[in-house]
Write a structure and sequence with these properties.
Length: about 600
Amino acid sequence: MCVYILGINAYHGDASAAIIRDGQLLAAVEEERFNRLKHCAGFPTESIRYCLAAADVSIEDVEHVGISRDPSAHLHKKILFAVTRAAKTVGGRNRVEKGVESGGRGIFGAMAERFANAAKVRDLKSDLAVALGVNKSNLRARFHNVEHHRAHLASSFYVSPFERAALMSIDGFGDFISTMLGVGEGNSIEVISQVEYPHSTGILYTATTQFLGFPHYGDEGKVMGLAPYGAPRYIEEFRDLIKTEEGGRFCLNLDYFRHHKEGIDMSWDEGSPTVGRIFSDEYTKLFGPPREKGAPLTAREEDIAASLQARLEEVGFHALNYLHERTGLTDLGLSGGVALNSVMNGKVLLNTPFRRIFVQPAAGDNGTAIGACFQIYNGILNQPRNYVMEGAYTGPEYSDDEIREALDKSGLSYESYSDSEVTRRAAADIADGAVMGWFQGRLEFGPRALGNRSIVVDPRRADMKDILNERIKKREPFRPFAPSILEEHTGDYFEQTHPAPTMLMVYQIKPERRAEIPAVTHVDGSGRLQTVSRRVNPRYYQLISDFYELTGVPVVLNTSFNENEPIVCTPQHAIDCFNKTRMDVLYIGNYAVRRTNS
C-alpha cells in the first residue's frame, strides 16, 4: 500500500504545499501561482487541491500531514524572552516577527496574537477540513508539527544527492531560530548549532533593504543586484551592525533595530505579506535619512548595498567554515530565505573548503512544505531515501488539447508545430531578435523560471535588457537578467563549473566572453546562471541547442514569464500576459502565437 504525505507551509509568506508517495515527490506549488497575489500568505487551499489532484488521491487517502511550524519548539526560550521584554517595556509597543507570530498592541497584545497564531498551527486539521469541504472526522492522517528550521534542513538534505552532508538553514526567523547548522547522514539530521531570536542575517538584510527604499516583501534581491554598482566603504559600520562570535555564531547590534524592542507591524493573513519598518532611529543616525521609494539612487545607496552584501558574505562564510571544521565534510546543503542570495552562494566554493553544494530550489519558506514531507518520511518513519530533486518542475502542466482550447477561446490566431519544429522555429525567432514567451511542461517551484514559464531572448544583443524592461518587465535598470547555458559549455563561459540547475549561483563570466553575451553580463562581469541538462529539461535543452547551432552561442537570456505579478501558471495566464505586453511571439506547448501589427 502506498504512503502519501502532504506537506504544508501556511499562515505566513509564500504559502505552499507538496505531496510525496513512498518517498517520491509528486507535486509542489506556491499558492501565489493560483490566486496571483505575490508571496501570498494564509492557507494554501488551491495548492493542496492541486497536489491531491496530481497524486490522484483524496485527502482521506493521505496518511500523514505535516506543517513546517511547531509552536512548542523552543517554548521556554520564547516565554523567557517575552517575560523579560514585558518587564522592560510594560505599556510600550512591542511587536515581533514571523517566527514569534506577532501583532496586536504592545507586548501583551503581541503575546495574545502570538498565541492565536500558534492556535491556528495547532488546529491545522480543522482548517484543512474546512478548506477542502470535508468532514474533519473523515481525515485519517496523522498530523505533525515540524520545527521550521528542521523542515528547511530536511528540504536540503533528504532530496539532495548526498549520503552525508553539512547543512545550513539561514533566514529571517522561524520558531524563534534564525540560523541552524547541522549534519545529515542517511535518515538522520543532527543539529550542531543555532542562532536564536532576535539575531538574524535576514533581519539585517531586510532592514537595510527597507532603508534603501525597497519596502515590499521579497525586495532583498533588488539590493543584491544593486550591490555591484557600489564600493563597500561602510564595511566597518556593518561589522558593528552584526558581529561574528565563536562557534560560527553571530549577533546583531540591537541598537540599530526595532523588532526586539518596539516591535514592527506585520501582516501574515490572506494576501501579500507586509512588514513594517525594522531599522531604528540609531540606524538613520549612522547612515542618514532613508531613501524614499522611487527617489533617485545615489552613490550612498550603492555603497550601503555593497557593504551589506560584503558583510553578509563574511558572516555566512564564518558560519560555513565553522560547520566544515566541526563536520569535516565537503558536501553542503543550503536552505532558508538568505540562501536565495545567489551571489553569496556562488562564492562558497571559493571561500570555504566545501566542494559540492545542493541549494534547495525553493530555499525560502515555500520549500519547507517539501521539508515537512521528507522529515516525516525519512526522519520520523525512518524510510529509506530514494529521491533526488534535480530540478524544480513540480507544478501544473497542461496538454496540447487544453492549450488549444484556451487559444480558441482567446480568439488568437496560432500555428501548430511538431516537437522538433517548435524548438527550431523558436530558436530562429530568438536569433532574429524576437521577445519570446516560452510556456512548456510543468510549472517551476520556487522563485526562478527555469525554462518552462520563461521569457527567452538573444543574449548577444546589448540593447535587449532595455527592450525587455520597456516592453514587459518594467524593472529597475540596475537589475541584471540571467543566462541559461548548456551545462557542458559552462566552463567555456564561466570561471566556475559547479552545476547551477536552479539559478541560485552567481559566477564570474570569463572576461573574453563578456562582450559576446552583454545582455546577461552584470556590471561586475557576473551572471546568475542556469546550467541546463538534457536529462532534467529536454525541451529547453533542445531550444538552446538549436540556438547554439544557429549562432554558435550556447546561451540564452531567461527571465520569468510575468509582468509585475507571480510567474504565469495556466495557459490563460500566459495568453493574458502576452496580450497586455509587447511580446513578439508566444510558444505555448506546440503552438505559436505571433503578434500582428494590426
